[in-house]
Design brief:
The complex is a heterodimer. By secondary structure, chain A is mostly helical. Chain A has two domains: 67 residues, no CATH class; 102 residues, no CATH class. Chain B is mostly helical. Chain B has a domain of 104 residues: RNA polymerase sigma factor, region 2, helix turn helix motif (Rna Polymerase Sigma Factor, Chain: A, Orthogonal Bundle), CATH 1.10.1740. In chain B, helix 10 crosses helix 11. The two termini of chain B are 30 Å apart. The chains are: A mainly alpha, B mainly alpha.
């Protein structure tokens, strides 16, 4: 044990006898140049980081807007299939109604009763729209019985057509996502 | 207790004051006075030449940036010594950098590393010791140097590495055994040491 200790002490002494100065790898001017270069590089990196952070923030904002349905989001759906019918064709009941409302209604009726669950929000949206359409149908029936003003009838029909259009777009998107078209 | 060469370097107060005020010539004189011992300390701690030069550059940049904050409570060399050691430890403690350090081959091998440290008048025994020291794992080498030459205690080393005191002691014991084995090939390592 004492032998081991003495050898360790000898080793420590030897270590301490090693030179503790090495020639500097470069002079002060070179050090200054490298320091400036590093500072410039660090500034460049910081700029890049800010740009990357801005891009990420922009992407997140865009995703949130798309998810929440930004203004005009529904109108961005492709004007094809049943959605186009609702938007372009004239209606049979009222001149103010969107075109081909009857055709859209028939197309809706041909779809399965239960909406396909494309993602969590679809079913609730479809049911909500169907409920509101049913409410308006009730109001229209009651308005016809009471002989309400024509203006109110027209407003209700327009609202109904708008809701049907929205429903068509949701179901159409559903069908597209389902891959059955 | 052993004290590092760098920690004992005293600097003329007038020179220091001029350097603090940003005078280029004074800063250059400070560099000439402090750089050799600083680089040597960093090289002993991390081993690899290229890495040591990187850390040396970092250390000196921090030193000049913070020179105005120096409060004359310890010799300037000791203050710079603290900066250098903390930069080395930061590197050695980083798991990613530590792994890189272990995986990357030493440029030109141990012999080249040793040759770079050799100064005229070196005895054969010291060359052997340099070679043995260079062959140690980075953490073990740093612990040997901190304990034997820089005068750190085991609790201080444990604190610096964020490990236990027994970690420091066992690393030192293993490093000693390995150094002895390399310096005296007839000495067989104890069976418990890997």
């Amino acid at each position: 044990m004492s032998d081991l200790n003495s050898r360790s002490a000898e080793l420590a002494k030897l270590l301490r006898s090693l030179p503790q100065e090495a020639a500097a790898p470069y002079g002060y001017q070179e050090f200054e140049r490298r320091a400036h270069e590093r500072a410039r590089h660090a500034r460049g990196l910081a700029g890049g980081e800010r740009l990357a952070a801005a891009c990420v923030l922009g992407a997140v904002l865009l995703a949130v807007l798309v998810r929440l349905g930004a203004p005009g989001g529904a109108a961005r759906l492709p004007a094809t299939g049943a959605a186009a019918l609702v938007r372009t064709a004239p209606g049979p009941e009222d001149e103010t109604l969107p075109p081909h409302a009857g055709l859209a209604e028939r197309w809706l009726a041909s779809l399965p009763e239960e909406p396909a669950i494309v993602h969590v929000g679809t079913r609730a949206a479809v049911l909500g729209l169907e409920d509101r359409i049913a409410q308006i149908d009730d109001l229209l029936g009651a308005a016809g019985d009471n002989g309400d003003a024509l203006a109110r009838l027209a407003t209700l029909r327009q609202e109904r057509a708008r809701l049907v259009g929205t429903l068509v777009q949701v179901r159409y998107a559903e069908v597209l996502a389902d891959g059955s078209l | 207790m052993s004290v590092s060469r760098l920690a004992t370097i005293a600097v003329c107060p007038q020179l220091l004051a001029r350097a603090c005020s940003g005078e280029g010539a004074a800063r250059q004189a400070l560099y000439a006075q402090l750089a050799p011992a600083t680089l040597s300390l960093i090289r002993r701690m991390v081993g690899q030449r290229a890495l040591a030069e990187d850390l040396f550059q970092d250390t000196m940049m921090i030193f000049y940036e913070r020179l105005g904050q120096y409060r004359h409570e310890a010799p300037l060399g000791a203050w710079l010594h603290q900066i250098a050691v903390s930069r080395c430890l930061m590197y050695l403690r980083s798991p990613w950098k530590r792994a890189r350090l272990c995986l990357e081959p030493v440029d030109g091998g141990v012999a080249a590393e040793v040759a770079a440290l050799v100064t005229p008048g070196y005895g054969g025994e010291l060359i052997d010791l340099e070679r043995a020291l260079a062959s140690l794992a980075p953490t073990a080498r740093a612990i040997v140097w901190m304990y034997e030459v820089e005068g750190y205690s085991h609790p201080e080393i444990a604190l610096a590495f964020g490990r236990s005191v027994s970690f420091s002691k066992s690393q030192l014991a293993r490093a000693h055994a390995r150094l002895r084995m390399l310096l005296e090939p007839e000495v067989q390592p104890p069976s418990c040491l890997i």
